[in-house]
Write a structure and sequence with these properties.
The protein is an alpha+beta fold. Helices cover 16% and strands 44% of the residues. It has one domain: Thrombin, subunit H (Beta Barrel). The protein has 1 helix and 7 strands.
Length: 125
């Protein structure tokens, strides 16, 4: 799906959470570092919040395991890459919490936070 046709971010549903969660449909790349190899799979990001993302990816991830998620938000040119921990699973749908490690990842999460605040300030009708 081209970025121009990606759905605008909109609140997914109203549930008491640490932050607002937005529905979206963006391509993601999930990177899993194993002891003897690194696996990279393409998937879809379906929900996004300041602290994490829901991804659909055709690979086995363990709850509690660590992954890297790389994605580009709609109307943004630069990809965001951040480490995360798999917190829950339903089939091949995984809820991942962002765990920014290092200055670069913290900058990416700060940029993500800024973009989400922009979307929250300008709700679509």
């Amino acid at each position: 799906m081209a970025p121009e046709t990606a759905a605008a971010l909109s609140p997914a549903y109203e549930v008491k959470r640490r932050c607002v969660r937005y529905k979206l449909d963006v391509p993601v790349r999930v990177i899993l570092h194993e002891e003897d190899r690194t696996l990279i799979r393409d998937g879809r990001g379906t929900e996004l919040g300041e602290f994490g993302m829901c991804v659909l990816v055709g690979m086995e991830l363990k709850v509690g395991g660590e992954v890297e998620i790389e994605f580009t938000l709609p109307y943004s040119g630069e990809p965001i890459r951040v480490s995360g921990a798999v917190r829950n699973r339903n089939g091949y749908r995984y809820g991942c919490e962002f765990i920014p490690e290092g200055q670069g990842a913290r900058k990416d999460v700060a940029r993500l936070r800024q973009v989400l605040q922009t979307f929250a300030a300008n709700p679509s009708s």
